[in-house]
Structure formats: structure tokens, C-alpha cells
Amino acid sequence: MADETGSVADAGPASDRPAADGTGAQQTGLASILGPIGLVWTVSDLGYYFLLPALGLASSYNAAPGASTLYYALWVAVALALFRHRYRAWKPFENEPSTYLLLSLSVAAFVLFAAYLLPLLPQASWTQSWSPPEVRIATPWYFLPKSVEILFQQLLIVALVRALSAQQCSLRKIAVCCAALFGGTHALLAFGGVPLGYVARFMVAASAFGLMFPYLLLRVPNGFAYSYVVHWLYYAVTVAMPHIVARQPT
User: How does DSSP assign the chain, residue by residue?
Assistant: First the structure.
């Protein structure tokens, strides 16, 4: 169960507890944890890039925010169903006034940025011969499906962190596994037509955040909220920067 600091570390069900027959069993247990989570993550991304177009829907947060939001909302439900044993006894938020204040301020800030501040920023310039990544031309609606996708990814990270914690893995090992999974899955951005330079950038950033998330989830009160906010803010900064550094007409 959650500890006094709001940690998501817990003893977990018996099937999550470490085996007593040494390193080989631990490696097998690690593969059994990373495999299903990585598979769900991979299938969700490939479905976004290939299934939606096959159904006549644009795989675009800007052009089809409704379809993209529904798609990732379904994957949120899938994650909750498949890994429900990982979330058992998990308390993502403390039942305190400060928690509700944090959540309210975060939601308000997200809405304020996406709906009001982003449209006021200067137009971002694009001079390359190839089409810009969605994040470079993001509209306010971009953040609706993106917010749901982030929730889906955070739930997978929680499932991973809780499972490894139940295996009595060290925080360092959990962080390395999280960084490897989070960074590796961002290689799938290449299927979305994103240039390799952008793919590499997001993989490096995802790996860095992957090292951070387990600490927030295991050691910080309301760590899930902070993990989600940090994840969301990365995209807010990534979207805003091309507008902020855009050259003004002379």
C-alpha cells in the first residue's frame, strides 16, 4: 500500500513479489513486466499511425482532435483493465485540501495556456521543404488529445514503477527501466513522418524524464500529479518555443 509520503510503492499481489531463486528469476520477472507494458505502448502508437487512417480518420491532433482524443481515451480504459492489479490499493492523490488546490490550479493553467495564451503568440515560421511536425504547428485543440495521451502514458509508467517496486528493485534500476521504455517507445514517432532529428530529440528527452518519473511517483507526495504536470509542460514548452523565437517581420 502507499506509504506515508504518498509513494506508489507497495507489496502488491503475490504474483508481483520477487521470486526467491536468484538473478535468473528476477530477469524473467523483469521481462514479464516490461514486455506487456511495452507491447501495449507499441500497439497503441502503431494503431494511431495506421489504424486511424485505415478507418478514414486523420492521425492528427490538429486535424482530428476528437477522433484522437477518443482513440487514446479507449487506450486509457485498456490500460486500466489490463493492469488493474498494478493499480490495486494505489492512491494517486492525497485526500488533503492542498491536493485539490494543486489539481485545480494545474487544470486552470493548462486551459489558460492552450485556449488563451497560445493563440496570442507570434506565428511560428517554417522554411524547410518537408512538412512540419504537428508539434510545430499545434493549435489549441492539439492539447485535448495530447492531454489524454499523456494520461495513458503516465498510467503505463505507474504500472511499470509499481510492478518493479513490488519486485524490490532499487530506485535506480526502476529509473533505468523506465527511461529505456519511455525513450525507446518514442522511436515510433518515425512512423508519423517525423524527421529523425526530431525522433532523436524526443527519445533523449523521454529518457531523461523516464529517469525522473519514478522518483516523483515513489518519493514525492502527490507524485502522480507532479509527474503528469511535468510531462504536460514539456509539450507546452516545445509548442511555445517556435512561436517565441519566431522572427518578427521588418
Answer: ---TT--------GGGSPPSS-HHHHHHHHHHHHHHHHHHHHHHHHIIIIIHHHTT----TTT-HHHHHHHHHHHHHHHHHHTHHHHTT---S-SSHHHHHHHHHHHHHHHIIIIIIGGGSPPPP---SSPPPGGGG--GGGHHHHHHHHHHHHHHHHHHHHHHHHTT--HHHHHHHHHHHHHHHGGGGGGGT--HHHHHHHHHHHHHHHHHHHHHHHHSTTHHHHHHHHHHHHHHHHHHHHHHTPPPP-
Lowest mean pLDDT across 21-30, 103-112, 158-167, 171-180: 21-30
pLDDT tens string 148-162: 999 999 999 999 999
Cell 499523456 -> residue: 150
Beta-carbon contacts of 69 under 8 Å, excluding residues fewer than 6 positions away, are: 144, 145, 148
Asked if 183 and 64 count as a contact pair (C-beta separation under 8 A), the reply is no
Least confident of 18-22, 64-68, 191-195: 18-22
pLDDT band for 29, please (50, 70, 90 cuts).
confident
Averaged pLDDT, 160-179: 95
Q: Per-residue pLDDT averaged across 234-240, rounded?
A: 95
Q: Which residue has the cell 497560445?
A: 118
* Spatial separation of the C-alpha atoms in residues 65 and 25, rounded to whole Å: 44
Burial of 214 (0-12, 13-18, 19+ CB in 10 A): buried
